[in-house]
Amino acid sequence: RSSRVVEIQSQMSERAVELLGLPEDRACLLLDVGCGSGLSGDYISEEGHYWIGMDISPAMLDVAVEREVEGDLLLADVGHGIPFRPGMFDGCISISAVQWLCNADKKSHSPPKRLYRFFSTLYTALARGSRAVLQLYPENSEQLELITAQAMRAGFTGGMVVDYPNSAKAKKFFLCLFVGTSGTLPKGLGTECASEEPQQAKFTNERTRFRNVKGKSVKKSRDWILEKKERRRRQGKEVRADTKYTGRKRRPRF
Question: Are 161 and 241 found together in one domain?
């Protein structure tokens, strides 16, 4: 690997561990999802923490073994779930790996199901009050929504922290997830001088978009129904096709 790639990987690992907000007075056990050759693990070890790395690539894990990394390594597809006992980890990081779960490499693969399996088992494996910080390269906003929707469905709260949102090169997405507690979402780097608008996506239960002028929700309107159906499709659920009758009120029968 080029030294530039290694440097970027190290910086992102450092940032991900920082966003975990780990206690300073004790060593923690972390899970590294998509650990590859163990570059993130090196940083975790330097910080005095312990780690277990999971990766789907035997070749990458062989490199990690050759490099004599300090963490334990596991060859596994995270789309099949996280095979550890409940509450085992004090945190989880992942660098540039989770977006691969959006790809259906085999006919049997369903991205929403694989993402949900990953997030729901990760939620179980993490100690209450801990965090998962997943750095990812989303292809588009649909992919981002698919990933975050499955994370929230699995019970996580939190949202996206975007570092350097105004820079094409330095812009980085970190999905910052909380287990069992609703923490305050950290601020993205390089956002101070950007704009007063927060750069993070927050997940709230408010549905404020479908309000008419008087402040009443236009729930059950055609637009509302179409958007809801589209959301469910993105989550991989079966939804009836849209027709000219979608959202149309039925006349009362005599």
Answer: no
- Mean pLDDT across 118-134: 96
Three-state secondary structure call for residue 195 = coil
Pairing between strand 29-33 and 201-202? unpaired
Burial class (CB within 10 angstroms; exposed 0-12, middle 13-18, buried 19+) of 254: exposed
Same-domain pairing of 86 and 135: yes
Is the CB of residue 126 less than 8 Å from the CB of residue 92?
yes
CA-closest candidate to residue 77, choices 43, 34, 32: 34
Q: How confident is the model at residue 222 (pLDDT cuts 50, 70, 90)?
A: confident
Task: Judge whether 200 and 148 are in contact, CB under 8 Å.
Answer: no
What span, in angstroms and rounded, lies between the C-alpha atoms of 128 and 125?
A: 9
Residue 94 lies in a domain: yes
Would you say residue 140 lies in a domain? yes
Give the domain extent around 131: 3-179
Amino acid type, 213: V
Q: How far apart are CA 173 and CA 134, in angstroms?
A: 8
CA–CA distance, 210 with 216 (Å, rounded to integer): 8
Whether 63 and 166 share a structural domain: yes
Q: What are phi and psi of 10, to 5 degrees?
A: -65, -40
Q: What is the pLDDT of residues 39-80, one digit of tens each?
A: 999 999 999 999 999 999 999 999 999 999 999 999 999 999
- Taking alpha carbons only, the member of 140, 138, 203, 198 closest to residue 174 is 138
